[in-house]
Amino acid sequence: MQNKNNQATHLKKEILIRTIKAFLTDDFPAKARLIPYDMRPKGCAVPFRCCVYKERAILKERTIAVLGFSIEEYDERISLSSYAQKALKRSKPETLPLTVLETACKGCVPSRIHVTDLCQGCVARPCTTSCNFGAIDIINGKALIDSEKCKNCQKCISACPYSAITKVVVPCENACPVGAIAKNEKGHAKIDFEKCISCGKCVSICPFGAVHVKSQIIDILKHIKENKKVIALVAPAIVGQLPYPIGKIKSAIMKCGFCDVMEVAHGADITTKHEAEDFKQRMRRGDKFMTTSCCAAYNELVDKHIEDMKPFRSDSHTPLYYTAEIAKKKCSDCITVFISPCVAKKTEGMKNPNVDYVLSFEELGALLVAKKIEVNNCPDVPFEVESSKQGRNFPLTGGVAKAVEVATNNDIVCRNVLVDGLNIQSIRELKKYAKNKNCEQGNLVEIMSCEGGCTGGNACLNSYKTASKQITEYASNGKCVNDIEIE
Amino acid sequence: MEKIQVKVCLGTTCFVMGSSNLQELMELVPAKYGDKVEVSGSPCLSKCNIDWEYSRAPYVTVNNEVVFEATVEKVMREIEKQLSYAK
Description:
The complex is a heterodimer.
Chain A: H1 7-24, H2 28-33, H3 35-39, H4 52-66, H5 80-89, E1 98-100, H6 102-105, E2 112-115, H7 126-130, E3 136-139, E4 142-145, H8 155-159, E5 165-168, H9 171-175, E6 181-183, E7 189-191, H10 201-205, E8 211-213, H11 217-225, E9 230-234, H12 246-255, E10 260-263, H13 264-284, E11 290-291, H14 296-305, H15 319-330, E12 335-340, H16 344-351, E13 357-360, H17 361-370, H18 389-392, H19 399-407, E14 416-420, H20 424-436, E15 444-448, H21 464-476
Parallel strand pairs in A: 9-10, 9-12, 11-15, 12-13, 14-15
Antiparallel strand pairs in A: 1-8, 2-5, 3-4, 6-7
Chain B: E1 4-9, H1 12-16, H2 25-33, E2 37-42, E3 60-62, E4 65-67, H3 72-86
Parallel strand pairs in B: 1-2
Antiparallel strand pairs in B: 1-3, 3-4
């Protein structure tokens, strides 16, 4: 699992905090305009780029993404204060969840095969003979690849006894499991949203921090400021994201201005019950397998790329779906904000009319910092509705399949298959199951886009190891899902 | 010789800004230095209270030295430095 804390994420969080702090003052547009200058004042050291002006230009673009706008449509002539005003005025956030910062992206070279200095200019020259396209010549005693002729077959890489030839990868292209992001002829990465499943792997991997999530934080803060009833629906993965009990995190969220906090783990219990019934019916009618349906990136994957999987995906809705429905039933004029471990849920939220906004764990963290709320000093308040042990375990790999297994009450034998992370290999396997209408390894397939499940989500704050320990502890105090009453 | 005291700030600001990585120190330090160094997690060390100083979080203290934008490597280097003074 990739380490989530690096200088690029640190920088992104700092921009979030500064933007929220600017909002909390009485002159948001003016304060927002100053963010790049406050972060890189006159005469300061220039840590990352060629000059202070470029640093500020990129910081301006990052702030625009935090304000919720696409950099693809960004007009350089418009000031940050105008963008801040535009963010205050809009009634709906933009739909596509991600944006690429052109200026920040230019840093890496296009993907290619490259001969390094380790080339010894040997006599045997296996690279030239291995190449079927005549792309390698020896110039001044060193191998050189003609990029026009090279087809990226990589035969020369395995042929060289000095390991002198290497493939230079573009990290985002390499990390995307569905080929939705690529560098264009100008050298900028571009996302193809027809293909994108919003898994967020490009966001986490880009070493220049050039892929940004468009935040909805300003929209949410605006509603809180207008004294609307804003309800936070917290994903089960929130447990363990900060080293404090969940009850303290709950009251810290309320201190931010939310009027209530509901546990989506309760929605997970409803999902479990539906999914167990669904599973039993499918097995009885002779289906060979069923997949879970709670991961938003997986759902996008099926909808956009694996048509044949649709009949095998459970018809049960996601835990967020049921929780948002309960919230809106309880209070029809409330505004629901899902607090999420990943980017993909932003896309799910935008498609569900009961989910008004989505805030990531990182964004929530930034809000707590900006408001100077020390979570440890907040009271430990329990949730109104109790969630089950299995619902609380949803965010860990295997948690969803286990919950369904428990809820089937041994009526049908569950043989769980865990797809722990979507990547080219696991997607190939899934396509195979769908095509063959069979999964030989088992009958209940749990799919998580992120390695480790939601606790490994790309917007998480804590490491998987320590967070999962807290989740397991919290879950162990819960009742069995079969003893939970649902409406 | 007195033990070197390492305190990892687990306050909200430090944790949000990345001190989750530093939890590794709790296992690494005793394994490497035995009883010469004592490491513990601490509630907010109040280093972030000065306006805008959150941007240099997470903080760790090694005796009286403050390590800002702390990483495991930076903290280990500071421990080594103080151990070499003590010799």
